[in-house]
Design a protein that fits this description.
This protein is an alpha+beta fold and 192 residues long. It has 2 domains: 52 residues, no CATH class; 114 residues, no CATH class. The chain is 32% helix and 33% strand. It is built from 5 helices and 11 strands. The strands form 4 sheets. It has a 4-stranded antiparallel sheet with strand order 1-2-3-4. 15% of the residues are buried.
Amino acid sequence: MGRRPRDLSGQKFGLLTAMYPTERRDHRGSVYWHCVCECGNEIDVSAGALLDGNNRSCGCLKDKNQKQIAQRRHLVDGTCVEVLEKRKKRRDNESGFRGVFYLKNSNRYRVDIGFKGKRYYVGLFEDYDEAVQARLEAENLIHNSFINIWKEWNQKEQEDPQWGKEHPLVFNVRKVNGELQVEAGCQEIKTS
């Protein structure tokens, strides 16, 4: 004999109001409650998820928060300025430094850098410190330059939105003779 389920009828959990228990149970035996969200949607949620605060809406709260975050971010050609500015060390990188990967079979370090959804190969290095230095130089050339140029462009665009429409920001990376190069500036769009 299990314990008697708690009565959650009429209680609010975030945007959800528990209406009545259903016959359904989760893997721990927790009762699913039929709930109504403030947006009008109805959803069944386990009592455990309601009480622990894991479900606070039908999903509309997540959508609303993601839209607000998207409005605060500045995306340029699929690159988020804020992500570049606040880069952190990745937990899944064994070398301990982003973009520097230890290759066990060759006992060397491979250095890559990503920008606009593409990966650019920087080089192979015997020495870890050289590999990290190469990555930092690539970040300075690509990421930091992009941030600085975007900030200048954004300031002009804020002052004169029409100027921003007529002079879109251009920032492209390419490899020429094994070297990373950046093409940056504002292109003037000619109207006839």
